[in-house]
Design a protein that fits this description.
Length: 270
């Protein structure tokens, strides 16, 4: 039997596993394609899975169901989300993956216990956008062409400096335990910063209040907030070098890239 995997949680957080060594149905929780979600015990961990038909095609609704199950589990336990589409072909492959990475999984849970992710999206007017379009490289090589290249490089550095300044300002205002930042430019010429902040769950209300006061006073940019979420981005960071480690699943924010990058991608897990 194939298992579709959503996330890893703490076994003690699910009392129904106390007297069982086999998968136990998670009450009132359905996963992809309406399949029953199970708690699969693995030492001190619980792997949240559902039965899966490998011939079945996953779609956008499947991604939403994947995120919903993880969010449900996050209400009970620290979680390490699996990448959307992670499937174990049988019980042995699931057990082997957990056994070979158990120390890392447990260590990551310990680091993220009691923490959550808040996500800021900040829109900043980019005064360089239209000027940059006028100076896109044309065919041929000459003094004007090389001058345009230098000007484009200067504008890119200015944009990166501005992004770092906004990111630093947000860090000072919200004082997160950790953060991940990405930057991109929209077709309309706005610069968008996606900032994931790791905070203690007990401070969510304080964070939201700080956002309300900050967004009302900062006029030069537009701000949006979402969360609390499972710590998708920070699981990705902790497991980046592991071959079978979970990383971020479907989430409201892009995978983080250095501030020198512009592209945006959907978060994933391994």
């Amino acid at each position: 039997m194939a298992w579709y995997a959503y996330c890893i949680g703490e076994k003690p957080a699910f009392p129904e596993l106390a007297r069982h060594r086999k998968p136990v149905p998670m009450e009132s929780v359905l996963g992809i394609s309406g399949n029953q979600v199970f708690l699969y015990p693995a030492s001190d961990l619980a792997v949240i899975v559902s039965e899966h038909n490998p011939a079945e095609t996953l779609n956008q609704k499947s991604g939403m169901d994947h995120a919903r199950v993880i969010a449900d589990c996050f209400q009970h336990s620290t979680v390490l989300p699996f990448r959307f589409g992670t499937v174990f072909h049988d019980d042995e492959s699931l057990r082997k993956s957990i056994r070979s990475n158990q120390r890392q999984f447990q260590g990551n849970i310990d680091k993220l216990r009691g923490k959550t992710e808040m996500h800021l999206k900040i829109f900043v007017d980019d005064c360089c956008a239209h000027a940059l379009e006028r100076h896109l490289p044309a065919e041929g090589v000459g003094r004007e062409f090389l001058g345009n290249l230098r000007e484009n490089a200067t504008r890119t550095r200015e944009r990166q400096t501005r992004a770092r300044a906004v990111s630093f300002q947000m860090h000072r205002l919200f004082m997160p335990l950790d953060e991940e930042v990405s930057c991109r430019i929209t077709e309309s010429g706005k610069m968008v910063l996606d900032i994931a902040h790791l905070i203690d769950r007990k401070y969510v209300e304080r964070y939201q209040n700080k956002f309300a006061s900050t967004s009302a006073t900062i006029r030069e940019c537009q701000m949006q907030v979402s969360g609390p979420w499972p710590p998708y981005h920070f699981v990705h960071r902790l497991t980046r070098s592991a071959a079978h480690a979970p990383a971020a699943a479907h989430a409201p924010a892009p995978v983080t890239v250095p501030l020198t990058g512009i592209p945006q991608a959907v978060p994933a897990m391994a």
